[in-house]
């Protein structure tokens, strides 16, 4: 799964390059999750996941608190969760997750981003079956053996543990997110370089230089859309 870790790093680097856009997306997601459940991360596991991920992107505390307070205040603003699937150059596969307060705006914008960048929208289910929902953690300051040991002590099974560039990467089932998180914290891990619930492609593809450049433009166009929260794909960006 090492190559898939590279894609996650690429995604984080892209988002770090546009912090205001990232913060706005997190504010929206935190508000939605806090409104759907309790606005308290201690009793709202979904909110805890979002907040842990927000921490790895250095989202300011003020933005987090403002979004939670908005949910507490009973705001009437509502968002729909949408998933779009499509293809990029050379048949590369893409999943787009969105949160929108205007469905009639979002679909045309996503379709336009695909169309202008050598891609096209697919029907529901045309791509998602080739991806697996996965919990991913990046841990520094521990060896892979250390991580495996304390996870085994907690009787937590994971899909894979690898070590790359002084970072231990843990891949687990989505429903093990909190178990892995707590086991790590009990072992003295206070911060994660990555703490994501993501979609990982079962098989990755490499694109020729021209197609890869066009694909990067497509991903950028999708991620720049206000309503788009996450973009997943199966392209290997290499080292």
Q: Can you walk me through this structure?
A:
Its main location: cytoplasm. One of its GO terms (cellular component) is cytosol. Belongs to the TACO1 family. YeeN subfamily. There is one protein chain. The chain has three domains: 2-72, Arc Repressor Mutant, subunit A; 80-129 and 202-233, Alpha-Beta Plaits; 131-201, Alpha-Beta Plaits (2-Layer Sandwich). A four-stranded antiparallel beta sheet has the order 3-1-2-8. A four-stranded antiparallel beta sheet has the order 5-6-4-7, sandwiched between helices. It has helices at 2-16, 19-36, 45-56, 61-72, 103-115, 144-153, 177-186, 209-223, and strands at 80-87, 93-100, 120-121, 131-140, 160-164, 167-172, 194-201, 228-233. It is an alpha+beta fold and 239 residues long. A hairpin with a 2-residue loop joins strand 5 (160-164) and strand 6. The mean pLDDT is 90. It is built from eight helices and eight strands. The longest helix has 18 residues, at 19-36.
Q: Secondary-structure map with pairings?
A:
Elements: H1 2-16, H2 19-36, H3 45-56, H4 61-72, E1 80-87, E2 93-100, H5 103-115, E3 120-121, E4 131-140, H6 144-153, E5 160-164, E6 167-172, H7 177-186, E7 194-201, H8 209-223, E8 228-233
Helix pairs in contact: 2-3, 2-4
Subcellular location: Cytoplasm
Pfam families: TACO1_YebC_N (PF20772), Transcrip_reg (PF01709)
Domain TACO1/YebC-like N-terminal: 3-74
